[in-house]
Design a protein that fits this description.
Layout lengths: L4 E7 L4 E2 L6 E2 L4 E11 L5 E9 L3 H13 L18 H23 L3 H20 L13 H13 L5
Helix pairs in contact: 2-3
Bound molecules: zinc ion.
């Protein structure tokens, strides 16, 4: 949920479902309509979503939605603004290219069970990794948004062939 929503309380004109619990909101019952806005569409219209919940379900809905919002996955990896490496543009570009190559090699490792292939890929990852380190220092795993399960699966596979991802 975006940090702010609008809540409007009205009486229900006709019976209908609650977004938070299995029960219906009855006709004539006072209930809350939660309206979330999501910025503007390309046509310049404000995008919004309205949810109807029982009065007593409002807090629960807010708590769940807040939790979902706070733990949502961000799509982009990379360093926080203003904490960049002190590299020239050319070196930055090269490092970014290497980081992408490493990510691609890792996806290939995840996609195969062939130990011979994993060994070869592991070697290439090690090689790319060394280049990355030489070009601005080691990668900070915390800045990568790879799923923790994937990260573990990857570590297991690479360890099997004597590598550390
Ligand atoms: Zn409810």
């Amino acid at each position: 949920m975006p940090p702010s929503v609008r809540v409007r309380v009205t009486a229900k004109a006709k019976q209908g479902p609650c977004e938070s619990c299995p029960g219906d909101i009855l006709k004539g019952e006072r209930y809350a309509t939660v309206t979330q806005t999501f910025g503007k569409s390309q046509a310049g219209k404000t995008k919004y979503k309205a949810m109807k919940v029982h009065f007593v379900c409002l807090a629960k809905w807010l708590i769940c939605d807040d939790l979902r919002y706070r733990t949502r996955k961000k799509e982009k990896g990379g360093r926080p603004e203003g904490t960049g490496l002190q590299l020239s543009e050319a070196n930055k570009k090269e490092r970014r290219h290497l980081v992408r190559t490493r990510a691609r090699l890792m996806r290939l490792v995840l996609a195969t069970e062939d130990e011979g292939r994993i060994t070869v890929l592991g070697e290439r990852i090690g090689f790319v990794q060394a280049q990355i380190t030489a070009l601005g220092g080691p990668l900070n795993e915390n800045l990568m948004h790879r799923d923790i399960n994937l990260r573990n699966a990857l570590a297991v596979k690479l360890r099997k062939v004597g590598r550390h991802g």
